[in-house]
Amino acid sequence: MTRPDAENQDLFSIADLASEFGISTRAIRFYESKGLLSPERVGATRIFRKRDRARLILILRGKRLGFTLRDISDYLSLYDADRAQQVNLLAGKVDERLALLERQRNDLETTINELRDIKQLAEQRLTKKAG
Predict the structure, then answer these.
(1) What's the alpha-carbon Rg for the chain, to the nearest Å?
(2) CA atoms of 71 and 28, how far apart (whole Å)
(3) CB 57 within 8 A of CB 12
(4) Global pTM?
(5) Which whole-number Å values give the CA distances from 48 to 2, 9, 54, 59, 77, in the listed order?
(6) 49 bridge partner residues
(7) What is the pLDDT of residues 12-67, one digit of tens each?
(8) In a 3-state reduction of DSSP, which class is residue 38?
(9) Are 47 and 41 contacting, i.e. CB atoms less than 8 angstroms apart?
(10) How far apart are CA 112 and CA 116, in angstroms?
């Protein structure tokens, strides 16, 4: 996903980041509009630094793991703050997310079992009708 040479690069264009992470430039501008990224500007051109790239990695990871933009914003707001506070916030959010996913998994397992039961009953009725 990431380019090996990107780690050594200091400046990135919006197109560089979009290409590297397989997202649209519109998505990056959206994250910027929400205050999650703060590129420098040279005229109308956005210039992203390593810090912006690192934040984008965290944003995309957070989205992939199902965190809201609010959760991600809260986490990023502590990016330069006390590390212990950042880790505590992250641990709490991870616990919440795990609990939600476990509830969803249980709901899915219940639904799957119910659907299997319904299918079995339907097949039994079809077998009785055909016989």
Answers:
(1) 23
(2) 17
(3) no
(4) 0.74
(5) 16, 11, 10, 15, 18
(6) 11
(7) 999 999 999 999 999 999 999 999 999 999 998 999 999 999 999 999 999 999 99
(8) coil
(9) yes
(10) 6
